[in-house]
Structures are given as C-alpha cells and as structure tokens.
Amino acid sequence: MEPNSTRRPVRVGLISLGCAKNLVDAEVMVGTLLRDGVEITSDARDADVVIVNTCSFIDSAQEESVDTILESAALRESSNRGQGIIVSGCLPQRFRAELPKLLPEVDAFIGIDQVSRISTIVREALARRAQRLHGKAGSPRGGRKAAVSARLAALEAAKSAAASKDARHPGGGRSQRANPPPPPAPLIEVTPRPSFIPDYATPRFRLTPRHFAYLKIAEGCNHPCSFCIIPRMRGSHRSRPLADLVAEARALITDGVKELNLISQDSTYYGLDLRPNRSRAISAPGPFTEAVKSLPAETPTICTLLRELNALPGDFWIRLLYTHPAHWTDELIRTIAECPKVARYVDIPLQHIHEIMLERMRRETSQQYILDLLRRIRAGIPGIALRTTLIVGFPGETQAQFEALLEFIRATRFERLGVFTYSQEAGTRAGNMAGQLPERLKRQRRELAMAAQHEVAVQVAESFVGRTLKVLVEQAASAKALEQARITSWEHGLIRATEEHAAQLTGRYQVARGEADAPDIDGRVYVRGALPAGEFAHVRIVGHTDYDLIAQPG
C-alpha cells in the first residue's frame, strides 16, 4: 500500500461527523487501518487518503457532510493533488446511486458494511486517484455546496423518468465522440440493506478520552417513525451477542474506562431479534411486553445485559442511551434501580405529547402511555434524571397542539431536554405529508419551547446547590470554555444558550460530569481547583449557571 514512497506506510486522515454510533464506525476503521500498518494523521494536508465519515439524518447534518467533502477536495487541490478521498457512512448509504455524479471529486464511496474492509478500499482509492490525475481529471471548483445539497434533498422525492434518462445520458443526447475518454469511475461499495455489526474481535481504536467509551450493543432499527430515514440507511435491528458485549466491556474497564455508554438506534429492543423462531419485529408496547414475558430464559434482553455489566468488577458507570418509550418494561425499571453502577439517567426521546402528533409521527405510544411511563420511572428509580428530545413544527402541528407540548415541558420538568425543528426528509412518510409549516414558524416554536425548558433548567440547577455529587473529571477547563460554556448538537437539539452567568467561572477549574450528564450532550460541572483527570471525585455544589453547576472538591 505504498502511494509515493517505499520508505513509509500510507497515511490516512479521518473526519467523522454525526452521532456516537457513527463515531464507533470511525473507530473500527481506524483500528483496522492501524492493524494493517497504515499511519493515521490529524493533518489532512499530510494524508495520502482522507476519509469523510458522513451523516445524513436530517438536512443540517447532510449539509455539514457535503460541506466537509467539498472543503476536503478544495484542500487537496491546493496542497496535495495526489490525495485520495473516500466518503463513508450514512450519506452514501442513502444516496449510493446519485453521489458519484454529484461529487465526481470523490474516489470511493462505501457504506456501513464496508468499514471492516477499509484498508483494501484505501489502496483502491489511491490507485483510482492516480489514474484520474494521469487522465488530467480535475475537481470541479466553486459554489457547489448549495447545488449538491439541493439536489440531494430532492432526489428521493423526484426520481422521474426524465431524471433517469439524464443519468443514463449525461451529455443530453449530444455526441461525445470528440471528447477524451472519461477518467476511471469512483469505487462504489455500498450494500443496499446493511447487515454489519462489529464484535469484540473487530479492530477498534477509541477516539474518545481514555476514561469513557461507547459500547455499541446493536445496529439498525425496526420502528416505522414517519419522520425518520434511519431504518433505510442502517437496516433492521440486529443485536450483538451478550457474551461478546461483556467481553468488550471487561476489556474497556481493564483499559481504564470509567463510563460505558450503551448505544444503538433502540437500546430497549436489545436481544429481541435473538429470540428463537422470531418471525417479525415487535414495535407496539403491549405486544412487546408480552413477547418479553414469554422469552426463553437464555434469550438476552437489555435487563440481562445491564445486570451482567453491573456484575463486572471495578468502579465505573453504565449509561443507557437511546431508549424507545414503547419498549420500556417494569423489569427494566427494577433492573436500573437494583444496579448501582447504572447511572441514574434515562435518555428517552419522546418527540411530542399531543395524541394527534404522536399518531402522525407513528410513535406507537399514546399520550396517556407516556405520562404513565414517566411516572413509573420516577417512582421506581429514585433520583433519576430524565432526558428527552422533542420535535416542533411537524406537518399539521396546530398552535393548540404546540401549546400542549409547552405545558408538557413545564409540567414534567425534564432534567435534560433538547428541541429539534422538524426537518422535511425526502423518502420519509412525513416528507410527503400535507401541512408543511414554514421555517420561520418552526424556528419560533423551537425558541419558545427552549425558553420554557430554560425556566425548568435553572430551577433544576438551583436544586443541586449545597449537595455533594460524585462526578467524573474530564480535563482542565480552558479559558475559552469558561468564557462561553455552551453546547450545540444537531443530534440532541440545542440544550444550552450562551451563559448569562459565566462571569462566575473565573480562575482555575476542572470540567467534570455527574450521573445526569452524558458526554458531549448534557451539562457540565465546573470544579474549582485541580483534580485528577479521568477519575471519579466527590464535589460540593456551590453555584450554577443556566445549565451548568459550579463546585469545589468535597
């Protein structure tokens, strides 16, 4: 795999976008490349190949992916024209047929199933890039982001016969005999319905700090949510074997991990696809609960996984992320309550509370079911912090339905909450619904929802003052972090605005997180003084900003 020299290995740079699940795919690619003798570089100008691991969940994530690809191509043109570019992840998974025409500067497109073959694909991308340069094939220049993004947004909704004809005859019927032969086409390796999921033996190089890790327990999704494209991109739900997960968790803890973050598209469905003689997916709460009760003893569930992980030796947290409300059971509530290493934290995206909106979103849960579930969780798990995400501006959402959502936010008092504006995604049921709302109204409703949550969040933060908390220390706080303590995440919605009380944060601080704070998503605890990074500590809360806590060593 020598690109230009026999004296050094190939160098690869990787940019990973999107969620923690995508990050694990990136970690698998880096681990595979290192195993095969490839160097990893953080300087894209020095790389022989750059991999852009993309997201295509909503419009803003898709635009970020396109922007990053075009920026990588522009940097290559200015500093390293022999560099190969590989685009991986959800964007090619969603638009595998169209991307080669829209992004001709890319040398290879791969999907989810191909991440474990990345070393071979790097070699092929380099060879294709060399052939393209030999044929004097340059990269298109200037002003293409808007055109590419707009075309991607329209593709699945408008695959007309004329578009197909244009794709087959890109010259529009004019003679091409006078033109030189086209450069080699990019490599395209994308399985339409992915089935890959990593296991313990899969090479992996963690890109998170040493003290926390993401443990992908399953891949894919079976839910029919009308706004979501994930099942089409990621395939059906598929769980990893229980023993495999326990083995990986044990190795991570031995390596110094203090927090295991369990991730998947639907963590509460874990193991149900492993049941014997399964014939179909189970989505609705009633049938799901009955199916769980009738499972053979040897079939793993999220409850057995949590109990197995809790039994591992060591001082660490287990954080359960991405739980679907339709798949909660009384046994799961008891399990969390009885497992001291499971963080008192629940990530349970609800999306809305009004009955009509829940039906149009195809969420499989009713308003009363949600209210009863939240009551049961809080009653059964003392001290639990509830996190949710909501969607405003869904097609047909009336002012009255939005007002019901605001009242739900105020009454439920979620400890952590993010809000999305609805993103109209081609290829989804909701994308074709009547009653699409204007962007201005959607943004206005989001601001109002976050204002309602802001009032709750300040009261929640105030309630911690005077208490002693166990926290996981991250790192020393930079001056910039103290000046502007904020997080924006397209995946979880805006959860923190610019802090009005950041003036409190002067001097030397450590950034830490409590049980109620998932990494890169939720709040932070700023601890005065110096504490060992990557270790647990007990601190006393002495103040707060809008969303963060201020503490001193306890």
Give structural notes.
The termini are far apart. It is globular, with a radius of gyration of 24 Å. Strand 13, helix 15 and strand 14 form a beta-alpha-beta unit. About 7% of the residues have low confidence. By secondary structure, the chain is of the alpha/beta class.
Structure summarized in a few sentences:
With 554 residues, the chain is α/β, with parallel strands linked by helices. The protein contains 17 helices and 19 strands.
Largest sheet: 6 strands, parallel
Helix content: 25-40%
DSSP helix count? 17
Tell me, rounded to a whole number, the average pLDDT.
Answer: 88
Name the poorly predicted regions.
159-178, 484-492, 494-501
Broad shape: globular
Termini Cα gap: 54 Å
Q: Give, in spatial order, the strands making up the sheet with the most strands.
A: 2-1-3-4-5-6
Q: Report the portion of residues in β strands.
A: 15-25%
Radius of gyration: 24 Å
Structural category = alpha/beta
